[in-house]
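Trying the structure run again after the queue cleared.
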Amino acid sequence: MNGTSVDLLALVGQDSNLKRVSRANGDEYAGPCPFCGGKDRLRVWPNHSKGPRWACLSGKAGRAGCGRGGDAIAYMVERGDLTPKQAGELRGAGEPVNTGPRIRQPRPPAPLPPAVPPGQEWQRAGRGFVSVCQAVLWGPEGAAALGWLRGRGLTDKTIKAAGLGWNSEDLWQPPELWGLEPWETDKGKPGQVWLPRGWVIPWEVGGDLWRVNIRRPNQELDKDRQRYPGREPPKYIGPKRPAGTGNALYNAAALTRERPAVLVEGEIDALTVGQFAGDLVTAVATGSTAGARLVRWVALLAACPVVLVAYDADTPGQKAAAWWLDVLPNARHWRPLWGDVNQMAQDGADLRAWVQCGLDQVPTLGLTGAGGGAGDGPNWTPGLPPLGAETSTSSTAIGAQGEPPPVTGGQDSQARPWGGADLPVRVDDLQAFEEKWGLRIVGLEWPADSPGLVATVERLSGVQIGKPENRKGGALGVLGEERVC
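Done. Tokens:
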């Protein structure tokens, strides 16, 4: 037999709930992957020109799948019906193969690494640099740079609340100042930390400075294109960080369990959403198409009522959006109508109405306006502190008109998305999870039977959370900072 003599669609349909999604390659079907999960990352083409084919979309397609694929025989090998040796023999033997149903546990993908901020020396140097740049921005030397930010639609209140600054010239500093190990360049010279000219954007989350991003002026980018033909220079760049550190989620401290979130690429996009619709949603940014793909940030987003994924309306942005839509059970695709969120605002679009329209597409939230009228905006009670934030007004979270959202110490059970009663569950087997990921038990925050949060965290971290008997009711609190408790 060969891979064309088996009804691949019926075979895969035993393990996955497939739905026809397009006519590509003679009909394309999609569903969860039996081997790694997801929503629709598995694709089956029963009428492919090269014979029936299946594939689990992976990183090359902008998805988080396992990358397995092939013909019907390859599927039976992955499923456990055949050994590779048997498959090789049967491809030419013409013998029948048992394709009956088989119960198989999904194979989780490789765990994502934990989120780690840079060391204290790096953070001290970064804060010193940021403070100088903030002073320059609001002085005579920064007038033109400040005008550029205002031209992007940002108000002075938003600019100040975000702590933006201006670095007026390229700087090179010794790595020791930033707590970095010395290195040599390709030409054998001592390496230095490059601080390019541009707008300075600090990333403060939970009391740590995770990153300092610098948006370079367009004229500097044009110079680099002339100097290095064929190479696209980076628009955003910051001081070198220790390896494996600084991969953060911009404005993550503002995320709450009651307020929907909007996920965008750039910090200016996040500030724009916060300025126009900060009372409706919390805007966060990954900083790049592949940024923030770590358990800590995924889990914080998974705890929100809904996440509108609003990456840039271009091919890289939409491929990156597919990764988040695949990972987050509460994600909804809400692509900018053109360009990016900030471009829409610059062009005169009603950004607040656009965000509200996105929320209205999620009827299960039951969101109503603050005045009680349907469609006026979400109605929640901000009784819980932001995830990962300190219980003080020193948080750098950006809310409506650039103001930090209110943080109170009380807790109202009516504010919980699941509407459950107080049934505390103390989980006693989270030690390994806490040590590996730097997360803390916060208690009484999430339901033990939440359909998305626990499953998402377990799948991405590779760590099983809690005992089965602890999931039958009550609230399971896992993710957050110790000081939130």
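The CA atoms of residues 302 and 328 lie 6 Å apart. Worth checking whether this holds up in the mutant runs.
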